[in-house]
Specification:
Order of helices and strands: EEEEHHEEEHHEEEEHHHHHHHHHH
Distance between the termini: 49 Å
Radius of gyration: 27 Å
Strand content: 5-15%
Largest sheet: 6 strands, antiparallel
Length: 426
């Protein structure tokens, strides 16, 4: 089997799809623009990467996307699957889907000059309709995010959304608890997707987390999609984290703070009721959240209407929240184009020959002399005579085993959380 997909323009896959060009690549597949040889209908051809085909579970997840999406084929806001098959000559599995023209919701929201609350609610109603159809069929998406929602033009000329990528969707059997918790994109994962170890750590702190995924798992992601559309803030901005391990810790254990207080000016225009709405969407326990996407969107639309915001033509400016840094001290203007600093004399130009040091952070001080890292004799003597630091006292108890593959990010996060409990870290 080839190590990479080498499909050129004009190649025919499985004798019926002629490739035009590559239009994107993800972690599991490469997507090509193609057309059916017989009918000439354009389509998006999603071809599985050979490395994925070698892993039985991942290959099953790829082909399950066709089966799951096929159950929702008639829904106007779910991407339509046209065909699924295998090219025997190249040993490539593929899914043929309708070809969409537009942008992902993440890209579309960034370039929209006129994004009003009424338009946001209209798109959210369409998204909720697709999720409701999936949940009614016993399907939980589990990887809902702005990158998996596509904005295209509807038949009436207005923006319309299509839900993409059901590759890791969970099909809940009747009577099952949906114990499979395979994660999607870490930033949009609900607590119940983080695994058994995280659930045990939360239980020790009196926090209840569901044992499996359900419709409310997608409601969690829907809450963060709404926050991003209305304020421009992403999950990492709300949680104030920079690593995946910190993200898992906050998602599972941190208290839910009102977004209007955490995000500052970007969320100050929202009504106070939005805080309660968002906190309910991201409750630790799935049973405490809205139990359907339609209920969540309906409640959001009601509170925006009561605040008179649905009549607002456009949203306020949505700057992405940034961690505040002290403003630089005002300095001299740079020399004019073509001027040359004087070689070492006084005057204004000499300041550009030797730049001023950066401003100090609050609570810090500037050293009056450079600090050398070379080990002097005195430092070496002090290091030899210094008493060794006492070892940290490890809390007694059995060592927890990670229930995830060691190379996955939930395993890394789980090890960090377990270590924080064992070594008395906050």
């Amino acid at each position: 089997m080839p190590e990479s997909i080498a499909l050129a323009s004009g190649d025919v896959v499985a004798g019926r799809y002629r490739v035009a060009r590559a239009i994107g690549q993800g972690g599991m597949a490469v997507v090509y623009q193609a057309e059916h040889v017989g009918t000439g209908r354009p389509c998006a051809l999603k071809v599985m990467l050979p490395a994925i085909a070698r892993e039985p579970k991942l290959a099953q997840a790829f082909l399950a996307e066709a089966r799951v999406t096929g159950k929702l084929a008639t829904h106007p806001h779910v991407v339509e699957v046209l065909d699924v098959g295998v090219d025997a000559e190249r040993e490539l599995a593929f899914i043929a889907m309708e070809l969409l023209e537009g942008q992902t919701l993440a890209s579309w929201a960034r370039v929209q000059a006129e994004l009003g609350p009424a338009l946001v609610c209209a798109l959210l109603r369409q998204l909720a309709s697709a999720l409701e159809a999936a949940h009614a069929a016993g399907i939980v998406h589990r990887d809902l995010k702005p990158g998996n929602v596509f904005v295209t033009q509807g038949r009436d000329g207005r923006p319309a959304v299509k839900v993409l990528d059901f590759g890791i969707a969970k099909v809940l059997d009747p009577g099952s608890e949906g114990t499979a918790t395979r994660v999607g994109t870490p930033s949009y994962c609900a607590p119940e997707q983080l695994g058994a170890m995280v659930r045990e750590l939360a239980a020790e702190r009196g926090i209840s987390i569901a044992r499996g995924v359900c419709a409310a798992t997608d409601v969690w992601a829907l809450g963060f999609i709404v926050l991003e559309l209305l304020t421009g803030a992403q999950p990492c901005d709300y949680w104030e984290v920079e690593t995946l391990a910190e993200m898992a810790f906050r998602v599972a254990l941190a208290p839910r703070d009102p977004p209007r207080r955490k995000l500052g000016e970007s969320a100050a225009w929202l009504p106070a009721a939005f805080d309660d709405w968002f906190i309910r969407c991201i409750a630790h326990d799935a049973a405490a959240r809205f139990q359907s996407a339609a209920e969540a969107v309906s409640e959001l639309e009601s509170l925006l209407d009561e605040a008179g915001l649905l009549e607002t033509a456009t949203l306020p400016a949505r700057p992405r929240p940034a961690r505040a840094l002290p403003a630089p001290a005002p300095g001299p203007s740079p020399p004019e184009q073509g001027s040359r600093p004087s070689p070492g004399g006084g005057g204004a130009d000499s300041q550009w020959e030797r730049p001023r040091p950066p401003p100090l952070l609050p609570g810090s001080r500037r050293l009056t002399r450079p600090c050398s890292s070379r080990p002097t004799r005195r430092r070496l003597a002090e290091a030899r005579t210094a008493a060794p630091a006492p070892p940290l006292a490890r809390r007694p108890g059995p060592r927890l085993a990670t229930r995830r593959e060691p190379g996955t990010w939930p395993a890394c996060a789980a090890r960090v959380l377990a270590r924080s409990r064992a070594w008395h870290l906050p």
